Amino acid sequence: MEFSNHAILIGALLVLLSIVVSSLSARTGAPLLLVFLAAGMLAGEEGLGHILFSDYQTAYLFGTMALAVILFDGGMRTHTDTFRVGLWPAVSLATVGVILTAGIVGVAAAWLLELDLMKGLLIGAIIGSTDAAAVFSVLGSQGMRLKQRVGATLEIESGCNDPMAVFLTLVFIEVVRAGDHSLGWSMLWAFVWQFGLGGLAGIVGGRVLVWLLNRVSLSSGLYPLLAMAGGLVIYGTTTVWGGSGFLAIYLAGLVLGNARVKSQGSILKVHDGLAWLAQISLFLMLGLLVTPSALIPTAVDALLVAIVLMVVARPLAVWLSLLPFSFPKREQIFIAWVGLRGAVPIVLALFPALAGLPESSVYFNVAFFVVLTSLAVQGWTVAPLAQALRLKLPQEHAPYYSEFVEVPGQASLRLLGYRVTELSEAISRSVNQLPLPPGVRIVAAFRGGKPLDSIGQLEITAGDLLYVITTDEHMTLLDHLLVPADDAEESEQQRVFGTFTLDGDGPLGEVAEIYGVEVPERVKSLTLAQYIDRQFHRRPVVGDFVRIGGMNLVVREMRDGRTTKVGIVVRNR
Questions:
Q1: For site-directed labelling of 532, which of 128, 200, 325, 396 has its Cα 20 to 30 A away?
Q2: How confident is the model at residue 411 (pLDDT cuts 50, 70, 90)?
């Protein structure tokens, strides 16, 4: 009993201190997960805490469960509209990209570490996939608004490439253990079965879970737990049947997150906390598991493996995987650099030890060192690189409060809270005079912390708090109306989108004539949106631009896959 009490105390203190110390991440730009990993190492047997933890079986059990929770949450936050531009490139990266990365790194690892080729390929498989926890954490904590094509591709890839890495790792473990270097047809069947069953179980299981959540009547606090339990049941059932549980739970989360279910807002909030707890606990545990002094003998070789991964294998795999999709070069560079490694390679590095392979410590130490290098080097430079490559879009003002509102028979509604700024067009107008779209309602107003009556006749002043019920499609309009950008933010928006904004239906020929730009006769009859669509094979995203004569046409706003607003940037000639 005393041991249990001490374990609870130490575990709680580690999580508490890690969260408090994570505030350093915002000040220094350090990736949050690197902070948690370092905290675990400091608390370990060779750190200040002197905590001895070397139970690989427990680490594997906890690690897989934590990864399942993280993938489930990641799936729920992936909107299906991102699939328009990111699905197939991400699938290519998650399959072909992982195989190419594993192969190139594997050959290099075999040569650098003086291992048999199959053992080198096992190392390549272990560190071949990007990590969902690392990518979601870095992109979220940096507060970056990336171009949709880039952000969607990275998030979908990191969420669905783990199954390929797991499959390759298990294949090469069997090859190394059997000493047979041939890959038979049974491996191909295993691949089809794992991915086919994982995909089917995730989609069907997700729909069953949506049905269940909408049919049962529970206390509001139980819906998030039901969702989590259902997700883990889908993961466990798929795994027991020999399918890819990681793919299944990610797809189940995707189905759930894009469906209308009871207590949707509560489910998302609770699972956000669960995902953070899973990430923190997972990286703390992995930090405890490593013995820093054991990394030293392989440090130089592992660093070289990491360099091969970051500057050769990943970029080459990205280039080949994205060839059919005509990604601009700067987007390929960024996607290649943000191939972050995190918890997944370390968890996969436990597999050889659990399988009883010799030299299992080499696999673990190399994988751990590669993850450290990736988080420290790549994770620290994501934001500056996005800025340098012009992939970081200006931040949009968001309401300080947002909550889902459940209305039977209605589309998804939100209750948004805004603090009116001095630049707002709403100032000195009454609520009834605001140009609000149909269906948008201001339901409450506060001034000086006190509620105001007669909302319709209220004359709005700076600092008022307004609470609005709206659908998602009108959020951007409300942001611009109530909290427009200040001078610095407006300058940044003009730098990206230009000073003038035109409707996408504007005729290209007339616009070119106004700006004195020569355009080919064959495209003069096209609208701005049609011309942009042609350049990007009907898959443009906000921030994309095309150069024509002395100006850039920049996609500023899209709706239902169509370019509705185009910014004009006149370039110096």
A1: 396
A2: low
Q: Concatenate the DSSP letters of all residues of 206-241 into one string.
A: HHHHHHHHHH----GGGHHHHHHHHHHHHHHHHHHT
What is the rounded average pLDDT for all residues in the chain? 83
E strand or H helix that includes residue 500: strand 500-503
Count, in order, helices (H) and strands (E) of the chain: 26, 9
DSSP secondary structure letters along 108-156: HHHHHTT--HHHHHHHHHHT-S--HHHHHHHHHHTT--B-HHHHHHHHH
Backbone Cα Rg of the chain: 26
Residue 573, pLDDT above cutoff 60:
no
Residues 6+ apart with CB under 8 A from 86: 148, 149, 151, 152, 153, 155, 156
Q: How would residue 112 be classed by pLDDT, with cut points 50, 70 and 90?
A: very high
Q: Which of 432, 74, 3 is nearest to 247 (CA)?
A: 74
162 within 8 A of 344, measured Cβ to Cβ: yes
Give residues with Cβ within 8 angstroms of 539, minimum separation 6. 84, 85, 149
- Cβ-contact 284, 36 below 8 angstroms: yes
- Residue 291 makes CB contacts below 8 A (sequence gap 6+) with 44, 45, 46
Could you give the angle at the alpha carbon of 350 between the alpha carbons of 271 and 52, nearest 5°?
85
Q: Looking at the DSSP assignment, which residues form a beta bridge with residue 434? A: none
Higher pLDDT, 75 or 379: 75
At 179 the three-state DSSP class reads coil
pTM (2 d.p.) = 0.83
Nearest to 279 by CA among 32, 23, 10: 32
Query: Residue 28 pLDDT > 60, yes or no?
Result: no
Q: Is the pLDDT of residue 108 over 90?
A: yes
Least confident of 54-63, 173-182, 550-559: 173-182
